Amino acid sequence: MGRFLKITLDEIKRAELENGYRNGDSHTFRRHCQMVLLKAEGRQTKEIAAFFGCCEKSVNDWLHRYKKDGVTGLRIKAGRGRPSILSPTADAETVRSAITEHRQRVSLAKAELEESLGKEFSERTLVRFLKNLTADINA
């Protein structure tokens, strides 16, 4: 049998976690706060994992991050995921001009952009980039 991970909270830490659970900016952060609160109530890791539909290792990893870094450790760190192929700042004007020139033929605009930018990407990536670009303009 392994060691049991025990979390004890004073009133200030409990209030901070409850505030994060109720008012956190992202769903994952609120879930992580709730994991720690449930563990502090004396629940088993297996029970918490079943409640959230994840594995016990995942719960224990977040509990260890909380013990090490506090509430700030429960946030997802920036820079996760795959970097964008097309940059909104560097490539936006080039993409706009290519799309303006080939309004009805995305495949021609894509071929022209791949040649001029020296990057390979799918039509779907180009369409997604255009949607995000117009969403940023309209916001």
Folded structure, characterized:
- The protein is an all-alpha fold and 139 residues long.
- The protein folds into two domains: 11-74, no CATH class; 92-138.
- The chain has seven helices and no strands.
- It has helices at 11-23, 27-40, 45-52, 56-69, 92-101, 106-117, 123-138.
- Report the β-strand fraction as a percent range: under 5%
Count of separate structural domains:
2
- Using the CA coordinates, give the radius of gyration: 23 Å
Helix content: 55-70%
Topology, pairings included?
Elements: H1 11-23, H2 27-40, H3 45-52, H4 56-69, H5 92-101, H6 106-117, H7 123-138
Give a short summary of the structure.
The protein is mainly α. It has helices at 11-23, 27-40, 45-52, 56-69, 92-101, 106-117, 123-138.
Entry keywords:
single chain; 139 residues; mainly alpha; 2 domains; 7 helices; 63% helix
